[in-house]
Write a structure and sequence with these properties.
By secondary structure, this protein is α+β, with helices and mostly antiparallel strands. The protein has helices spanning 14-24, 32-52, 56-66, 88-99, 115-130, 138-157, 163-166, 171-188, 192-203, 222-238, 255-259, 299-311, 333-339, 349-353, 356-366, 382-389, 432-443, 449-460, 469-475, and strands at 76-77, 85-86, 107-108, 287-288, 324-331, 391-395, 404-410, 415-420. 55% of the residues are buried. It comes from Sporothrix bragantina.
């Protein structure tokens, strides 16, 4: 047995089964509706990255990391930075930061991670680096993307999905290195042994503290860390570097064992989920597109308010809002632990987008929760803060994941209540047509309209293209700060 194949476990377990599937799957093995949906998901991710590229936190990150780059730059572009090039690892990190930069990007409803911010930056960086050897075709890129979309959630399900948020880990930053490594190994054409090495190298880099959701700016970057880690892992494996074998199911120091420690679950972790349903059950179907610019855990609270506004329009007219005396938000455990904390001044836009109290108050005052509602000026809106001060959140331990109830009490002693099992974007999911509308709305005022049109055409016809290299330069088109 060669060193690359050596292991202390000779059985054919979930890690090897997953690695074999990654190495062997072909685009024609994936149903057409899944392939089509993936193109629209990609378009949404690019929209999120382009609109956030010049937010203050993103610009700060670019300037800090650019100081570490070689004087002659690199071979990978940054979204929206007018042709600026950096090394592939920095490109993956920063473009991942951009896509996650404003809480508008996709999320997986069962094993929460933001797939686009992990997979796309790694693949785009790898594709540009590979131009020295060969062109990357649209079908190759689409297949590699779908591999990442399928792998990340399966790894997450092995850790009981959303429950990991309740234990304080940032789920996507933990699940994510596996997704980006899987995608890039597929693009590189590694065999199953090489894939397993890459997954093992990626998993040992996984980390992410959920305390980043409060005052820190690093929450935006943690999926970028995952993108960079998987990219690095794949190229190390391509170079023959040996990774951890059977990394998911290993008992001592294995990925699932370590990240599930103290989670209170029986069984503690679920290794079979890592490879369950490969080729028959498509996790891409559970990738959701956000209609609101905030963490998905508070979307249900926003929708409860929105439905109350529709049911009782007179109660929510600007002059009548002053009669609100209390806003009581009840939410399921994961939603509560992630977004059920009460906002307090001073608050960054990251914190505001993570708080159910701030999001619900924003919906009441502004009747929408989009990027514009989190500008510096809006974060100091006294009308919103008056309602935040009247709000509280309660853990509803018996609620299933995603369920919320909002009860609003008025000055005359009456109240109105709305219970919602799932938010818009989950049930119903946004349609492909709605995703295109979101793409156009997010990009229309920040970049050249012709570039917007060309990117849309390339992405939605990706499965027919022999070379996607024109996309690289288009994504580097100069953008402006979307909330300036």
């Amino acid at each position: 047995m060669s060193p690359r194949e050596a292991t202390n476990a000779t059985d054919f377990g979930p890690t090897k089964e997953l690695s074999k599937w990654i190495a062997s799957v072909q685009l024609e093995d994936i149903p057409e509706d899944i392939r089509v949906r993936a193109k629209y998901i990609i378009l949404d991710g690019l929209a999120c990255g382009l609109m956030a590229a010049h937010l203050p936190t993103c610009e700060k990150a670019v300037k800090a990391l650019a100081a570490l780059e070689p004087a002659d730059g690199g071979d990978a572009v940054l979204f929206g930075w007018g042709g600026k090039k950096v090394t592939p690892l920095t490109s993956a990190l920063l473009n991942g930061t951009f896509i996650q930069g404003f809480e508008l990007d996709d999320w997986h409803s069962e094993a929460p991670l933001h797939s686009n911010s992990i997979v796309l930056p790694a693949l785009l960086a790898a594709g540009q680096h590979l131009q020295k050897e060969r062109a990357v075709s649209g079908p190759q890129f689409l297949l590699a993307t779908l591999v990442g979309f399928e792998v990340g959630p399966r790894v997450g399900r092995g850790l009981h999905g959303a429950h990991i948020l309740s234990t304080g880990w940032h789920s996507g930053a933990v699940f994510g290195p596996s997704a980006s490594a899987a995608s890039v190994t597929k693009l590189l054409g590694l065999d199953a042994v090489g894939v397993e090495d890459a997954l093992g190298i990626a998993c040992t880099q996984a980390c992410g503290l959920m305390s980043a959701q409060f005052e820190s700016e690093v929450k935006r970057m943690q999926h970028g860390f995952a993108s960079r880690s998987g990219l690095m892992a794949a190229f190390l494996a391509r170079g023959g570097y040996i990774g951890i074998k059977n990394v998911y199911e290993r008992e001592y120091g294995g990925f699932l064992k370590q990240f599930s420690g103290g989670n209170g679950k029986t069984p503690q972790y679920l290794p079979e989920e890592v490879s369950k349903g490969l080729g028959t059950t498509w996790q891409t179907n559970s990738i959701r597109i956000k209609p609101y610019a905030c963490v998905a855990a508070v979307h249900g609270a926003i929708d409860c308010v929105r439905l109350l506004q529709q049911r009782y329009p007179a109660r929510f007219q600007p002059a009548a809002v002053q009669d609100i005396r209390k806003i009581h938000i009840q939410s399921a455990p994961v939603n509560f632990h992630h977004g059920g904390w009460k906002a307090a001044r001073p608050l960054t836009n990251t914190g505001a987008q993570m708080s159910a109290t701030f999001a619900a108050a924003t919906q009441i005052i502004h009747r929408q929760v989009l990027a514009a509602q989190f500008s510096t000026e809006m974060l100091e809106n006294d009308e919103v803060w008056k309602l935040v001060d009247l709000s509280d959140c309660e853990l509803a331990p018996d609620y299933p994941h995603g369920q919320h109830q909002v009860t609003i009490t008025f000055a005359d002693g009456t109240s109105a209540s709305q219970l919602l099992k799932n938010s818009r974007g989950v049930l119903p999911p946004l349609t492909n047509e709605e995703i295109v509308e979101k793409w156009r709305n997010l990009t229309k005022d920040i970049m050249d309209p012709e570039a917007v049109k060309e990117i849309e055409e390339i992405v939605l016809s990706m499965d027919t293209l022999e070379d996607i290299s024109p996309l690289y330069q288009l994504l580097s088109s100069k953008t402006t700060n979307s909330i300036a």
